[in-house]
């Protein structure tokens, strides 16, 4: 059983117990709950209206530790873009969600650095760990998804880990521009995205 978007300390503890008992359980967490807490909502900023909702610092701390020690298996973008009309409403009426796909790598690397989990673990929870969770459901792709192997599918992201950039919503390619990370400084910039051996994205020089 795979549990999506774990967001509480209690959830992390229960999953840890289940794994200790040998149960076939896996889970993931979103970049939002990995980095933000209910304090970031401020004066009910609708960009922070997310699902699952932002929780307390103790929950975020447990999530960070769980991702580092393997209790949590994968980190996801929870990419749920919301259009302008649905987001620019009072907090309780605004649609829950945020764009996240373009921020996933940068925020994973930031967590790896801030938490001292390291770059290797930050990349694993985006690549080889999700592939391990999916296992045989990947069919013929099982042997190459999430890793670099001779003869495998050439799905590759090339990035510069030391190229700082600022999250500017207007520059995002997603149709949904709303993100709780607007204005945040990240340090990993994608240079090329290769899909099945073909360059699908190349950053401007």
CATH topology descriptor: TIM Barrel
CATH architectural category = Alpha-Beta Barrel
* Overall structural domain count: 1
Structure annotation, total helices: 7
Give the class-level CATH name: Alpha Beta
What gyration radius follows from the Cα positions, in whole Å? 17 Å
Q: CATH superfamily membership, which one? A: Metal-dependent hydrolases
Q: What spatial form do the alpha-carbon principal axes imply?
A: globular
The description of the largest β-sheet is: 3 strands, parallel
The CA-CA distance between the termini, in Å, is 44 Å
Helix vs. strand class: alpha/beta
Number of strands: 8
Sequence stretches where pLDDT stays below 50 over 5 or more residues: none
Relative helix content: 25-40%
**Helix and strand pattern:** EHEHHEHHHHEEEEE
Question: What is the typical, i.e. mean, pLDDT?
Answer: 94
Strand adjacency order, main sheet:
1-2-3
Report the β-strand fraction as a percent range: 15-25%
């Amino acid at each position: 059983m795979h549990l999506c978007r774990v967001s509480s300390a209690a959830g992390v503890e229960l999953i840890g117990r289940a794994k200790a008992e040998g149960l076939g359980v896996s889970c993931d967490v979103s970049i939002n709950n990995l980095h933000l807490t209910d304090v970031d909502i401020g004066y009910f900023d609708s960009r922070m209206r997310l699902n699952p909702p932002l929780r307390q610092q103790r929950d975020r701390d447990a999530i960070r530790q769980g991702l580092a020690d393997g209790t949590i298996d994968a980190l996801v973008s929870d990419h749920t873009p919301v259009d302008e009309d649905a987001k620019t409403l009072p907090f309780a009426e605004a649609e829950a969600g945020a764009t996240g796909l373009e921020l996933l790598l940068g925020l994973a690397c930031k967590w790896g650095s801030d938490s001292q989990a390291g770059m290797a673990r930050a990349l694993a929870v985006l690549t080889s760990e999700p592939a391990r969770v999916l296992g045989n459901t990947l069919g013929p792709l099982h042997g190459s998804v999430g890793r670099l192997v001779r003869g495998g599918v050439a799905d590759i992201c090339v990035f510069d880990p030391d190229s700082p950039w600022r999250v500017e919503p207007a520059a995002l390619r997603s149709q949904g521009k709303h993100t709780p990370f607007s204005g945040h400084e990240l340090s990993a910039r994608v240079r090329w995205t290769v899909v099945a051996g073909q360059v699908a994205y190349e950053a401007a020089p």
